[in-house]
Inverse folding.
């Protein structure tokens, strides 16, 4: 932003590019030049109006400067458990195959980032989000105890309805706190079997690197406890409230053949979407607050008109 002196130089009556500047020559010369302009065909390249240098300067000043493209960014750069900026996806997958990578040697997760992602929440952002979320949950526990005490002897379904209304308010408050602090990441979750985890992860990793999915993805390593429910893969989006993007990523997963989760009886179970803030606050299945741990189900999202 120019200071007031610079603005005066440009726009004032005695400024450098004033319309009255003698740069155009004396009055007789200006009259002669104008007559030549009026008598000649209009140029398709330089309209007569641009012969006024004040107009030209102001027009040029109004043209927005093209911003430099954002540099590639890897939130996991330098970490052994993640793809690096100069590492081809094929090399990354060969270096860290999830089927055989052990928690004890590499940690619980293998990560890959979309290097063009612009969402960059900091540890400070997450600390504020977690503090706000913990306060909301603490307040819920206090209010729940009061409701339970005041409704002793009432029908169980009446109490359940009252608490469920409160739970929905709590979920909304937690999500609002996450968005307010720039921590709106969420993820679609896949559970491939151990036998299929390398293949599924390879598809997810390549699509993430190509910018076809979300901001990042991760896959669980071998924790030594067996494969009871499959190996978790998370595909992240940058804003759980951006329904268009949440649906876009889901439809890409469907296109890739990854979103058709079925039970052992062949029932179509779909997949779930969970805000990251719920994970940070330990809002898992059977959590002590009775909160639903997921935000969306694939069946409902596919029906969205967005």
């Amino acid at each position: 932003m120019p200071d007031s002196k610079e603005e005066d130089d440009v726009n004032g009556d005695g400024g450098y590019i004033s319309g009255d500047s003698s740069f155009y020559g004396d009055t007789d010369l200006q009259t002669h030049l104008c007559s030549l302009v009026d008598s000649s065909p209009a140029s398709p390249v330089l309209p007569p109006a641009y012969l006024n240098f004040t107009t030209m300067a102001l027009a040029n000043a109004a043209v927005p400067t093209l911003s430099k493209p954002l540099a590639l960014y890897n939130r996991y750069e330098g970490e052994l458990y993640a793809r690096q900026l100069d590492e081809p996806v094929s090399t990354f997958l060969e270096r860290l195959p999830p089927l055989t990578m052990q928690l004890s040697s590499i940690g619980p997760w293998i990560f890959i980032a979309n290097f063009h992602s612009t969402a960059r929440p900091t540890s400070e952002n997450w600390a504020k989000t977690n503090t706000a979320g913990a306060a909301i949950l603490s307040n819920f526990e206090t209010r729940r105890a009061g409701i339970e005490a005041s409704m002793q002897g009432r029908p169980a379904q009446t109490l359940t309805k009252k608490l469920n209304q409160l739970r929905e308010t709590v979920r909304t408050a937690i999500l609002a706190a996450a968005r307010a602090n720039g921590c709106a990441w969420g993820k679609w979750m896949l559970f491939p079997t151990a036998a299929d985890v390398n293949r599924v992860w390879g598809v997810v990793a390549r699509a993430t690197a190509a910018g076809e999915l979300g901001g990042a993805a991760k896959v669980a390593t071998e924790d030594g406890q067996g494969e009871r429910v499959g190996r978790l893969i998370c595909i992240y989006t940058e804003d759980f409230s951006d329904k268009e993007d949440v649906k876009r990523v889901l439809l890409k997963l469907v296109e890739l053949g990854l979103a058709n989760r079925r039970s052992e009886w062949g029932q179509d179970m779909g997949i779930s979407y969970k805000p990251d803030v719920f994970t940070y606050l330990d809002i898992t299945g059977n959590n002590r607050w009775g909160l639903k741990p997921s935000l969306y189900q694939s069946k409902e999202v596919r029906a969205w008109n967005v």
About this structure: Confidence is low (pLDDT under 50) at residues 1-67. The beta strands are 109-113, 186-190, 216-220, 233-237, 272-275, 296-297.
